[in-house]
Design goal:
The protein has one domain. Helices cover 76% and strands 0% of the residues. It has helices at residues 7-31, 36-48, 62-84, 90-96, 100-112, 118-136, 144-167, 172-179, 184-194, 197-206, 209-234, 239-242, 249-260, 267-295. It starts with 6 loop residues before the first helix and ends with a helix.
Amino acid sequence: MPTPLPLRHFLLALAVVAVWGSNFVVIKVALVHFPPLFLAALRFALALLPAVLFLPRPAASWGNLAAYGLLIGVGQFGLLYLAMQGHISPGLASLVVQVQVFFTIGLAMRTAHERVQTFQWCALLLAVAGIAVIVLHTDGSTTPLGLAMVVGAALSWAGGNTASKQAGKVNMLAYVVWSSAFAVPPLLLLSLVFEGADAWRTAVTHADLPSWLALAWQAWGNSLFGYAAWGWLLARHPAATITPTALLVPVFGMGASAWWLGEPLPAWKLVAAALVMLGLVLNLLWPQLRPRLQAR
């Protein structure tokens, strides 16, 4: 049974999901001038340098560092940035990517050879129903391709969670920094092939101050603070305890997108959000509620 988080650890998790949720608006600001794959490469380059010169390599294998860097850098953010370049709105992206909770717990159960319980299947079906509502309402701002890329990003995020869990109690700031070395080269190569060097020059010469600040926030707010803190929590608590706190990401994400970008929130979006979040809440709270109900 998942154990409750200590208050300080809960507040840290809350700060992380607040940063991650509001970050979807920041990503849109950065994408105005930066091509998505080039933006991802710059993000992890800033996370890597100059911090790697001052932080010793964490006590994790090169293979583990490479897996985390590729999964989070190329898999999660490469796909997410591509999706948000005209294929999905920030608010919906912040919601759909939360299926990483089910992927993370599923991978943890596969590793531990545990069976998925009935309530977890029910929670997953609720979340899938929410995604289905979005699929039925795809329009110019959200496309099936965008949804597929964000689901792929969620799967990569879950793989990154698993890799950081397997690394154990390492220095997570150093872990995020050193793993970024494995994200930058493939992202640059993909960007060169699909976006071109001319797009790099145009982005660097035309990007305004908000775009550069958004890029810095990606590297230092999300990568260095967010993923270091998240990995630190995962190393100290079961995945089933930590990952469901990410259900607050779409609250911040959809709220920030509606407030700052004017993203509309029609009834179908609210229904989809309610279904996905109900699934996440069920997955989080049922293990704690069931013993109390059985005791009556």
